[in-house]
Amino acid sequence: MKIDLDGSGKASLNTEIPFFDHMLSHIAKQSLIDMDLLLRGDIGIDCHHSVEDTAIVFGGLLHEALGDKKGIHRYGHFTLTMDEVLTTVALDLSGRFNFTYRGPESIKEGKFGIYDAELSLEFFQKFAMNARMNLHVLVHYGDNRHHIHEAVFKALGHALRMGVAVDERRQGQIASTKGVLE
User: What's the rounded Cα separation, in Å, for the pair 74 and 130?
Assistant: First the structure.
């Protein structure tokens, strides 16, 4: 996997898991982070390790790409509507891990092709852990499972775009009174 924080949202994704490719493409498009991913996993068993490993690698690459985090906004949030769904994603690129999800339990139910729906929460948790960020996902309401997943991935993309963006007024300073972000 390769990412470019200064990209235009291009995604070249091949995980052999069509629904997962679809969700990752939303992160890329909305965050303007270019992604190049070729993944071959043990999907004959299930998609768990492939999704988890992608989250671990993506989170680590994001953390590495941000370096000392000088000049970035650090915080990002976005409220997104998609048909009957309303969701908010908020993040802090603080160097400290937390993942919290509040919303319908139906996010864990069923499958999208070979993708088990419960893997989205696994992805968000492992991504946040390895990016060393606080990540909060709130699905205010919604019924259609596809719309719920899609809204969260898109909102995450928007929140990332805001958090990693350079704040020109900050003039290379770190957005912390401690003067450092891990």
Answer: 16
> Where does residue 71 fall: left (phi above 0), alpha (psi -120 to 50 degrees), or beta otherwise?
left
What whole-number distance in Å separates Cα of residue 124 and Cα of residue 56? Answer: 10
The CATH class of the 2-170 domain is alpha beta
Sketch the domain layout of the chain as residue ranges: 2-170
Taken in order 77, 138, 11, 127, is the CA torsion positive or negative?
positive
Task: Please tell me the number of Cα atoms within 13 Å of 63 on its side-chain side.
Answer: 21
pTM over 0.90: yes
Which DSSP string corresponds to 25-74? HHHHHHHT-EEEEE----TTT-SHHHHHHHHHHHHHHHHHHHTT-TTB--
Residue-by-residue pLDDT tens, the chain, 182 positions: 999 999 999 999 999 999 999 999 999 999 999 999 999 999 989 999 999 999 999 999 999 999 999 999 999 999 999 999 999 999 999 999 999 999 999 999 999 999 999 999 999 999 999 999 999 999 999 999 999 999 999 999 999 999 999 999 888 888 777 877 77
Interatomic CA distance for residues 25 and 17, integer angstroms: 12
